[in-house]
UniProtKB/TrEMBL annotation, chain A:
Membrane topology, from the record: Multi-pass membrane protein
Family stated for the protein in its record: Belongs to the binding-protein-dependent transport system permease family.
KW Transmembrane (keyword) present: yes
Keywords linked to the UniProt accession: Cell membrane, Membrane, Transmembrane, Transmembrane helix, Transport
Name of protein: Raffinose/stachyose/melibiose transport system permease protein
Coiled-coil portions: none
TrEMBL record, chain B:
Keyword Transcription on entry: no
Record bears the keyword Methyltransferase: no
First and last residue of the signal peptide: 1-26
Keywords annotated in UniProt: Signal, Transport
Protein name: Raffinose/stachyose/melibiose transport system substrate-binding protein
Family of the protein in this entry: Belongs to the bacterial solute-binding protein 1 family.
Domain of life: Bacteria
Amino acid sequence: MNIRGLKPGTVFFMMTLPAVLLYCLFFLAPVFIGFYYSLTNWDGFSLSYDMVGFQNYIDILQDKRFLNGLSFTLLYTVIVVFGKLSVALVLALLLSRPLKLRGLFRSIYFFPAVLSMITVGLMFNQFFYSLFPPIGEKLGIEWLSLNLLGNPDTAILGIALTNIWQGFAIPMVIFIAGLSNVPKDIIEAAVIDGASPVQRFFSITIPYLIPMLTVNVVLAVKGGLTVFDYIVAMTNGGPSKSTESMGFLIYQHGMSEMKFGYGTAEAIYVFILIGVLSFIQIKLLARKEVGQQ
Amino acid sequence: MMKKGFMKSGLAALISLAMMTAAGCAGGGSKNAENEAGSNNANSDGAPVKIEYFQMKSEAVNVVNELITKFEQANPGIKVEQNNVPNPENVWTMRVSTNDAPAVFTHYPHNPIFQKMAKEGRVVDLTNDPLMNNVQPAIADLSKIDGKNYMVPIGLATLGMYYNKDIFESQNLQIPTTYAELIETAEKLQAAGITPFYFHDKDFNGIRQEVVYKMGQTIPNVESFLDDVMNGKAHITDNPAFKPFAENLLTLRQYGQKDNMGTGYDDALRDFANGKTAMWFTGIWAIKEIKESNPDLNFAMFPLPTENPADLKTQVSVDTAIGIPAEGKNQEEARKFIEFMSTKENVETYLGTAGYPSGIKDVESGLPEISSLTQLISDGKVYPTIERLWPPGINADVGKATQEMFLNKDVDQYLKTLDTIFYNKFNQ
């Protein structure tokens, strides 16, 4: 491997150079440039702008709209993570049993994942407007007889429900893959020892699923914190300002209200938040993996 | 150790290289403009001059192509390329910012980003230019930005009340000419078990359009008053005209469908087209889709009535206006094209399909459904969209605040919120 006297390490590094270069240019550089703009009052297209230091960062912390957006996003994330993962886990357990037509069911349940978020958002818009209200009226349920998305208290549920319907498929597939890794001999030994199905589930299956759970939680949390498409397709941040997520606010400030510097500063906050949360999750869950004690 | 050090310095070099490239792109923009301006004698070798017509209306692509063919036959030395892209306003801003402006473009004079770019000198000033000679004076006036015309207004849009003619006939109802008659009509319809109005209050955009329209129509001198508020010299809560305005918004909702907050624009359009409501307030842009949803619907529009019929006027926004960038190529050819596009005959062809009213003198256009609105416009009983002077984002805030008022029905709180939205905005 010794090319013209270069050390092997150098040669290997040179081979990765095109990828590293592209990564730096299209992923790392924008992060740094973005950070630079977050220190300015640039409106997104003017030729001139001023450096304002950390003023944007200070203003954001006093901005009620940002804080509302933050609490909406966190609540939304909690609902979506629990919703998605519980549905995914239950379906994964069912679909791992030796069923007739198992392959067909797996494809059917995976189907929502191949649709685009905007499409699903627009579809559910119609469900919430013309399908659910008549059902709610027949059953005499007051809050269901109106469009869920038209009420500031229930709009978050409407969006979360849509996200869960579409988003459980990928974690489900990951769980199914994880379930096939649970050693049959240990299960059999547990059956012989008289362990109940519930005991087997919590003491054997769950520990083997922890790596999948880690991946799924990280992905779902990330998906929840950066929710944008559903909001645009379904409520546009409304009614009033009740469903403005962080991603939506960044877009609003940066693109619609011509406060690019301010929007970028918000994006940096979200970046830090997601980074910290992902780090904590991975650390916490990694400790529970089989063979890691 | 060697390897690590190499990688680190390599990475650092790459990052700084990338940042320098990007900084170069962002900072060095205006320098090459002079070179481009000097090189517009492209037809010295006999090849036709190519100009790009960047137009923002996807529904107009076919008719524009027709007009271009006609133009090219009359001007063999010029080739026009039409360009219609998704999200055209952002594309336009980006291209003009990076000195890649199309030779001729359409835009909206009330658009805040366009206004800002025009004030920065990015667009050719056409005030008193021969190109403006054919424009109706009232329309030239309301499409001014800080007293200057930057585009030739061709097509106009307005809003009004759609009504279902069959329902009105079956209930023996006349078109209301005062606000009181409008409420009376609504009461009669409600008594007959018909939903008088549909509102699409789920979208703050729809509410925003209604609010802006009614502010301009009913509050005296509202533009200069709001200007004072935004300069910190007045308060909305001190202006007695705002309370009745807000109460009217709320009163009309009593005659609306049950789930107005859950109804979006598309839902309302479909329900109006299917005869579920007698009236619906929105812009003339819905006509085409209503006809597509239900070709048999017998409908027309009337202007939103005022307290006193003598005050009747309608809000006009420019829907197609053509301009030239300050640093554009082939400006002479671009002017020729605009001149061609703004002649009476070609404007009639252009507006024929959409049926919009025109900003050009003596043009006969406008669908029969909107004849009462077209009449108001040619009588000069028009006013501009007052939101054109608001900083970006304010109109969305107004729409959202109005949604809140519809939910909690608190008019006083609404006026206070409006005041916080506008007060001292120019000094922040």
